Amino acid sequence: xxxxxxxxxxxxxxxxxxxxxxxxxxxxxxxxxxxxxxxxxxxxxxxxxxxxxxxxxxxxxxxxxxxxxxxxxxxxxxxxxxxxxxxxxxxxxxxxxxxxxxxxxxxxxxxxxxxxxxxxxxxxxxxxxxxxxxxxxxxxxxxxxxxxxxxxxxxxxxxxxxxxxxxxxxxxxxxxxxxxxxxxxxxxxxxxxxxxxxxxxxxxxxxxxxxxxxxxxxxxxxxxxxxxxxxxxxxxxxxxxxxxxxxxxxxxxxxxxxxxxxxxxxxxxxxxxxxxxxxxxxxxxxxxxxxxxxxxxxxxxxxxxxxxxxxxxxxxxxxxxxxxxxxxxxxxxxxxxxxxxxxxxxxxxxxxxxxxxxxxxxxxxxxxxxxxxxxxxxxxxxxxxxxxxxxxxx
Length: 394
What we know:
There is one protein chain. Helices cover 77% and strands 0% of the residues. It has helices at 3-14, 18-31, 36-64, 66-86, 90-118, 124-152, 158-179, 199-215, 222-229, 234-240, 242-247, 251-261, 264-281, 288-317, 322-350, 355-374. Helix 1 packs antiparallel against helix 7 and helix 6 (124-152) runs antiparallel to helix 7 (158-179). The longest helix has 30 residues, at 288-317. The termini are close together.
């Protein structure tokens, strides 16, 4: 089994709980007596640990290897599922979320770095797309299993059964990570200590952090808006995301190939431009079925530029210090995401629930034009010798 296949397997099994926990964690917490204030503490602590860990993880995997980061990340995810399985109070859920923040920092920075290690310029975005597809497939299957158990009341304590299933799948993921994933630390290793501080990369970090800030303006209020303005039926809300979830299981790979063949800057900026236009339409569309179309187009657009955005890290910084690069990159995304969600929630609550979408759309459109002018990195399809790993037959 080659490294990309091993990563696909590991990512597939570890991603089972992602959607369900993200969607129903507040409901579960409330069901076991967690107060609103305690829930706020849990989310804030998760964000804090996620942000603090990212630079340290980048340094660790550049010095100790990428595989150790993947394994540690999955171990922490296993502990998350274990604590959710056995816990029934505030301290268990707080610990689980802390471990989730630490685990997420380890596994995704390490996986991004491994993909960069085993890829070259003409297949890097495609490989990121392949991993994104595997994540989406596991996420979709895990959510399907979880929601089926909950909605049909198969067990007296449905959440315990679901968390047990997720614990088993995370242990399977750990098996693949330990026994099948290979170390890539020695690939293309040629350090120049000052390359990480180049101005192009620092500008890129600022731009991507700003993009995440803008994208996060509606992250915590989007479902609230849907419930207040489109439908308050939970099953209808869940249907909104099914088309995007299905498409995410096979489109990222194809969009990755597109990014590898053409200029990644243009793919990224075109996607941001289209995304801005779509968000301007959200306050206008009130019909449920039209809203499904807009929501699905938003998901497709995010899939379009996602692989290009991830691949641009190495395009800009070069083949040196990839762990540090992705550590700083994830840190910028984390800070932008945290600040964006806070500002967006304030605007939604204090100014208006539609204004935030207009603001987001206008800023995204302006940002796309600014980014194409400032990001001085041209990428495209070139013949590159000594490809580290082929994706044929996967």
